[in-house]
Amino acid sequence: MQVIVMLEAHPLTSAELTGEWEKQLSDIEHGSGNRVAFMGEIERFTRETVEKIGSLDREKLRPERVELGPCPRCGAESGEIIRENSRAYGCTSWKSRGRDWCGFVIWKRVAGRTLTPEIARQLLAEGRTNDVLSGFRSKGGKHFRARLVLNENGQIEFEFAARSQTAQPDTAE
């Protein structure tokens, strides 16, 4: 998404380009298109796009990082905040020279699912997600759904919805 924002009105961001390529691929599939010419065009387009990105102002290439609010562990006394970085949402106290880092962090990847800034913000504000979230994967590879809860140590735990049990008819004695 950052690349799309950086490129602004570049053809890579247009639906027309996708439609044009789909048409050319269909023509190739039906024998009326030239595969070699198409691949050459893709190679040229890719090279030009990479060169364009390389020529952009370095400040434009820096991803926007969100600030989620005060650190729940040390923010009250220090004024430190939770800020997004490439792998986590963490306390900014690690940048403060001469101070110990409080260590608060919410990792962006939890059980194979990426946590958005909105989910991290909700965890900080409410201590839990309002909704049961899907897209998690256990260590054994099984998919599961759960609500995320921030425990008293600032670590994420899963809260599973209770499974409904089918009522058994009363037995007559």
Q: What's this entry about, in short?
A:
The protein has 173 residues and is an alpha+beta fold.
List descriptors:
single chain, 173 residues, alpha+beta, four-stranded antiparallel β-sheet, 21% strand
Catalogue the unreliable spans: none
Strand order of the largest sheet: 1-2-3-4
N-to-C series of helices and strands: HHHHEHEEEEEHEEE
Number of strands: 9
Look at the structure and give the mean pLDDT: 83
The Cα radius of gyration reads 25 Å
Layout of SSEs?
Elements: H1 2-7, H2 15-29, H3 35-55, H4 58-61, E1 67-70, H5 75-78, E2 81-84, E3 88-91, E4 105-107, E5 109-110, E6 113-114, H6 117-126, E7 133-137, E8 143-150, E9 156-159
Antiparallel strand pairs: 1-2, 2-3, 3-4, 5-6, 7-8, 8-9
Describe the model.
The protein is flat and about 65 Å long. It has about 170 residues and is an alpha+beta fold. The chain contains six helices and nine strands; from the N terminus they run H-H-H-H-E-H-E-E-E-E-E-H-E-E-E. The chain has a four-stranded antiparallel β-sheet with strand order 1-2-3-4, covered by helices on one side.
